[in-house]
């Protein structure tokens, strides 16, 4: 039974929070360790659920994993990698999307893989068609099995000329993790180039891979027969940083996010400043604060990097509910990422969601009946409510709203937040939030 959080809102969050390695890099760098012929050391690893899930999956496949939670050092030795039973893999896959990325590394290290149906946030259909198509182009055989897919490469994996119809982060990583040890050259057009992908490329290069990131979303990989282990410090979690930044703005607080990196947050910082938030960057992090006065409404579209990241959208929508005037947010990455607004509306936010594309970025969801544009009018006084957290970022945005609201909120489903926010209750306590946690009935 999950715990219940009782939040008494209205306290500005002030203080310091550290952010460690990115949820959207660390599990993938862990998967990459399977490609090496010697141990890998990943540093700055946070204690989050997605890391635990991949740790279990690696262990099931014979990888020795040793972790120091305090330093964040994670040592992985893949030298005895082996096949695992599909029912065990299924039981350990958890609520994560990472298992699909095991395909290439497992085919290279043990010749086959079983991949269970994926978890991850329910913010759209989230198909894996690009992943499977890319793998087939390398020569992999993909078979549907109960509860997942079986994948093998009886004739080996060969480099290919590939083109993604949309710059999918996961499918780009799938190609990288497969191409590095495939025979010959792979050229991927339409690739995603998120900072986490560039950091994964850095990991793979340390292992001996030959990867060139060209202009216009083209990545070229020359396959090599063998890779070694790596020693790498994971880039910081820019999505967690942006969430705390929004929390500072919404609660009229002042939060120093230790570890936040300006370069990875450029698009976010521009929007933060336009809304009326203030920030100071130094060598170790970024201070985010509400400088007083009213917040400004704006028009915003989520997009692939270098655009405004979709995972920043939900916390920023809460900030826009406090801006003076009408804002428009067009979500172009996921077709169904406004479900979280239902709870905000119950808390008093003035938000309408629309099927039309309210923006200029060509989007795959227009005229397809998806509620993917939001109109937000503010400012409103948010009020405490009963909330059941639906997903990671939507859930964090609900927490922020409850922390700023008048009165008390009762929040269930908080365990979902552990998937991407390390020690978030300790961090909230350190920032002065007024809450209790009780075991649910
Ligand atoms: C663990 C991780 O890193 N998660 C991130 C990753 O998710 P993830 O890698 O799952 O996201 P993708 O970039 O692949 O998805 C983007 C869009 O492409 C679609 N698509 C994707 C694959 C496919 O085979 N077919 C298909 O249609 C998806 O449904 C979605 O509409 O990138 C997203 C976009 O920056 C982020 O929101 C997630 O936080
Ligand atoms: C959508 C997200 O993650 P995942 O892809 O792991 O579900 C997220 O981090 O906001």
TrEMBL record:
The keyword Nuclease does not apply. It catalyses: phosphoenolpyruvate + UDP-N-acetyl-alpha-D-glucosamine = UDP-N-acetyl-3-O-(1-carboxyvinyl)-alpha-D-glucosamine + phosphate. The active site is at residue 121. UDP-N-acetyl-alpha-D-glucosamine binds at residues 97, 311, 333. It is an enzyme of class 2 (transferase). Pathway: Cell wall biogenesis; peptidoglycan biosynthesis. Its EC number is 2.5.1.7. Phosphoenolpyruvate binds at residues 23-24. Residues 8-428 form the Enolpyruvate transferase domain. Belongs to the EPSP synthase family. MurA subfamily. Cell wall formation. Adds enolpyruvyl to UDP-N-acetylglucosamine. This is UDP-N-acetylglucosamine 1-carboxyvinyltransferase. It comes from Arthrobacter gallicola. The gene is murA.
């Amino acid at each position: 039974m999950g715990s219940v959080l009782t939040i008494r809102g209205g306290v500005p969050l002030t203080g310091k929070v550290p952010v460690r390695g990115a949820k959207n890099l660390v599990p993938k760098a862990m998967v990459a360790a399977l490609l090496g012929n010697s141990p890998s050391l990943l540093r700055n690893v946070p204690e989050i659920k997605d890391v635990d899930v991949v740790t279990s999956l690696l262990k099931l496949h014979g990888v020795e994993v040793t972790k120091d939670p305090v330093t964040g050092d994670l040592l992985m030795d893949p030298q005895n990698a082996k096949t695992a039973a599909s029912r065990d893999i299924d039981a350990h896959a958890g609520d994560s999307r990472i298992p699909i990325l095991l395909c290439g590394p497992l085919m290279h290290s043990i010749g086959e893989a079983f991949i269970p149906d994926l978890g991850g946030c329910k913010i759209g259909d989230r198909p894996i068609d690009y992943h499977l198509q890319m793998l087939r182009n390398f020569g992999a055989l993909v078979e549907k099995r109960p509860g997942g897919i079986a994948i093998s490469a009886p004739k080996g994996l060969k480099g290919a000329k590939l083109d993604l119809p949309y710059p999918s982060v996961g499918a780009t990583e799938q190609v990288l993790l497969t191409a590095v040890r495939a025979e010959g050259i792979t050229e991927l057009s339409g690739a995603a180039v998120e900072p986490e992908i560039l950091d994964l490329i850095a990991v793979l290069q340390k292992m001996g891979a030959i990867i060139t990131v060209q202009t216009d979303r083209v990545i070229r990989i020359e396959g090599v027969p063998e890779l070694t282990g790596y020693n790498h410090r994971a880039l910081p979690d820019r999505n967690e940083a942006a969430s705390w930044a929004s929390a500072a703005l919404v609660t009229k607080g002042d939060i120093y996010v230790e570890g936040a990196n300006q370069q990875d947050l450029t698009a976010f910082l521009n929007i933060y400043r336009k809304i009326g938030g203030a920030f100071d960057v130094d060598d170790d992090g970024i201070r985010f604060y509400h400088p007083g006065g009213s917040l400004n409404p704006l028009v915003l579209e989520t997009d692939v990097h270098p655009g405004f990241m979709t995972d920043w959208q939900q916390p920023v929508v809460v900030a826009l509910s406090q801006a003076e005037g009408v804002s428009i947010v067009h979500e172009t990455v996921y077709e169904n990422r406004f479900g979280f607004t239902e709870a905000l509306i119950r808390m008093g936010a003035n938000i309408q969601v629309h099927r039309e594309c309210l923006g200029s970025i060509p989007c795959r969801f227009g005229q397809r009946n998806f509620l993917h544009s939001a109109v937000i009018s503010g400012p409103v006084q948010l009020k405490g409510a009963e909330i059941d957290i639906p997903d990671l970022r939507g859930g964090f945005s609900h927490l922020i709203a409850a922390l700023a609201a008048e009165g008390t909120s009762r929040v269930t489903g908080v365990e979902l937040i552990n998937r991407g926010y390390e020690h978030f209750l300790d961090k909230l306590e350190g920032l002065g939030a007024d809450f209790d946690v009780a075991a649910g009935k």
